[in-house]
């Protein structure tokens, strides 16, 4: 079975078995040049849920919300937020075995803009069918008593508006769908 290599921050990871399915157990070799110079073999349990996944490591289980977006190069970039924590990782890329990040092809499918936390839609700034530019404000959402402006991560055309002003939304709820132009 082929191994899959990856990196999160300075942690170098080698998946001894490839995770697949909604839940399961895999072996993972992890190494950090400063914290863990010699590779350590871990058994990792996982379970998917609608917003991300739960990982079981030797120190316990942790939940992670995962949000996929297109980056400036047209590749899928992931943002991972650890639940019940302020830990967050942005601009993560996943590649298939034998593929280098630079070889990834541009993604040509729609991008769903989702709520990152529960809140209330205050103002819609984009409408169905509107062509938008990267960084253009799409909507204003109130969350934790603060107004947050949600901006477009890439240019495109609004193909779906899933919310209305005044609507309360939960974490992970679809807000808009942006099609590539």
Give the radius of gyration: 19 Å
Give the percentage of residues in beta strands. Answer: over 45%
SS-based structural class?
mainly beta
* Weakly predicted, low-confidence segments: 101-107
* Total discrete domains: 2
The major beta sheet can be summarized as: 8 strands, antiparallel
* Nearest-integer average pLDDT: 82
Categorize the overall geometry.
Answer: elongated
**Which strands sit side by side, in order, in the main sheet?**
1-2-3-4-5-6-7-8
Number of helices: 0
Order of H and E elements = EEEEEEEEEEEEEEEE
Give the N-to-C terminal Cα separation: 40 Å
Q: What's the number of extended β-strand segments?
A: 16
Q: Level of helix content?
A: under 10%
Question: What's the gist of this structure?
Answer:
With 181 residues, the chain is mostly beta strands. The protein is built from no helices and 16 strands.
